[in-house]
Amino acid sequence: MPIPHLPRRFLNVNSSVLTGFTLVELMISVVIGALLIGGVATALIAHIRSTLNLEFSQQIQNDLSRLTFFLETEVREGSAISTTATTPVANCGAASGTTSLFTIIVPQLNAQGFSLPTSTIDYYASGTGNTASLVRCGPPINNNGTLNFAGTSTATTISTNTTLTVTSSNSTSVTYSLTLRDPGGSRSVTRTGITNRVEATLIN
What we know:
5-stranded antiparallel beta sheet, alpha+beta
């Protein structure tokens, strides 16, 4: 039986179609793909870093606002402020040689008598450099926010990776700067010129 002949149009096929991609073409495709992937990865990393920086900035601002409000509340309860470098009471566990940044003299308004007794709240730094913490040494705080003058003064870390620097003060007000840092110390936010004044008045 004779073999049928295929039409010439089926025989004149471009040889490049039959052989596929060449090695050079494949290498060029791989390089282009790698460049595209690298560009996308770089853009993604930049976006992640930008988002993290934004989140850190917002978080640190929130922490600063809360810390400032807390300090303002404590100072307003006092009758006087002292920046004389005193040594926090021993039972607060402060390291040897630690001195207070400022001291709030708080009248015990629930006490009785012609002259009301007072308690002190010391703020001091624990540690140095980027890892320093702001510590409060004073009467415990009750669940309702009032001070427990009958309790023993204790140390409470108010804020970690925090530096407080007193810039000016008198007997009724204190001005300071607050710096909060991330745990690595590579980023920080500072608020300067924060002034708090006492409001409690003793009437004997």
